[in-house]
Specification:
The complex is a heterodimer of chains A (113) and B (113). With 113 residues, chain A is mainly beta. Chain A is built from no helices and 11 strands. By secondary structure, chain B is mostly beta strands. The chains are: A mainly beta (113), B mainly beta (113). Chains A and B meet through strand 4, strand 5, strand 9 and strand 10 of A and strand 4, strand 5, strand 9 and strand 10 of B.
């Protein structure tokens, strides 16, 4: 069984640029959620995708957008990067057949200069 | 809005001592509760998932209890080891079809050899 994978591991961007982060869900999982974790804080929910449709969104502006593909992998896109977007971005996959237990990937560390 | 609090924020114990980590949540209408471990700069590793109908869950040296009515969960780690040093986070989703986890800020544990 393959776990959740994310790419890239680290990324450095400058303010105003755009970034795309990628996530492959665990085998058999059709739901992907994205979280932002600032240093010293718990993760904050960004949005979730279920069977290629957005299924809920947290308190993040529209410049945070996403996609889910037919193989259930997902992308997180952030436009017009701001300094405060610097964080660890975590992807989690889950399945209702497994009591919604969330399995997280290793994260992408984004630094905005 | 679900608020999750973890006390204490940090804990330092000598090797061999038992650890007690606390988690409280404001809305008792939860579907389950999940405990995670996070090593510095890394993703989250799921430790235990407790369904709302369960009172506790055990895995090896780990035991987690859940009291929905009082909005509390406790994670016990028996006979701590230096390898247990990490940040421990608890998280709850709101409902059965809600995968959006609300996290506490975590308890950072240091086990001294």
């Amino acid at each position: 069984e393959t776990g959740v994978t994310q790419s890239p591991t680290h990324l450095i961007k400058t303010r105003g640029q755009q970034v795309t982060l990628r996530c492959s869900s665990q085998s058999g999982h059709n739901t992907v959620s994205w979280y932002q974790q600032a240093l010293g804080q718990g993760p904050q929910f960004i949005f979730q995708y279920y069977r290629e449709e957005e299924n809920g969104r947290g308190n993040f502006p529209p410049r945070f957008s996403g996609l889910q593909f037919p193989n259930y992998s997902s992308e997180l896109n952030v436009n017009a990067l701001e300094l405060d977007d610097s964080a660890l971005y975590l992807c989690a996959s889950s399945s209702r057949r497994e009591y919604n237990e969330q399995f997280f990937g290793p994260g992408t560390r984004l630094t905005v200069l | 809005k679900q608020e999750v609090t973890q006390i204490p924020a940090a804990l330092s114990v000598p090797e061999g001592e038992n650890l007690v980590l606390n988690c409280s949540f404001t809305d008792s209408a939860i579907y389950n509760l999940q405990w995670f471990r996070q090593d510095p700069g890394k993703g989250l590793t799921s430790l235990l998932l407790i369904q709302s109908s369960q009172r506790e869950q055990t895995s090896g040296r780990l035991n987690a209890s859940l009291d929905k009515s009082s909005g509390r969960s406790t994670l016990y780690i028996a006979a701590s080891q230096p390898g247990d040093s990490a940040t421990y986070l608890c998280a709850v989703p709101k409902g059965s079809n809600d995968y959006k986890l609300s996290f506490g800020a975590g308890t950072t544990v240091t086990v001294r050899a």
